[in-house]
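(Structure overview)
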Amino acid sequence: MKRDELNLAKIGRPHGIHGWVRVFPHNPASTLADKLTSVRLVFEDGAERSMQVAGWRETATSWLMKFESIDDRDQAATLTHADLYVPWGLLEPLEDDQFYYEEVLGWQVVDETGCEIGRIASVFVTSTDVFEVVGPRGRYLIPAVDEFVDALDAHACVLRVKNLADELRDD
């Protein structure tokens, strides 16, 4: 992944016979579809393809999207399972103490004493979001709440945690 792009969504199956596909944004509340004119698709085999968005509409569970030069169901099927990337510049700027989850992937995680716990491998978006941290001490699932998150240092790309207990290990 290029760090100047955000993995916004996953392409699903074709919809209808005119080249439309279902698109599942990683953030169901995202309003970025209105701003999309050009996107980059990355396929499971690593191949990439730039696409122009010809149209879109929202459904209850996904977006329906039409790309230029994709005119039938068979062509649309070739896009299934691709990741859809957009430039970070399309996103709204955040306050200093806020971040987009994809920004923290790969950040170093340390405890109160500065000892490395590992790196953020993923973020599970639930009612209480959870950082998956993998490192030499094992795999931890750390809730993104004040009880466990001491500080975020965006300049150093470090998450400092506190109250790290064995109960948070997931080995």
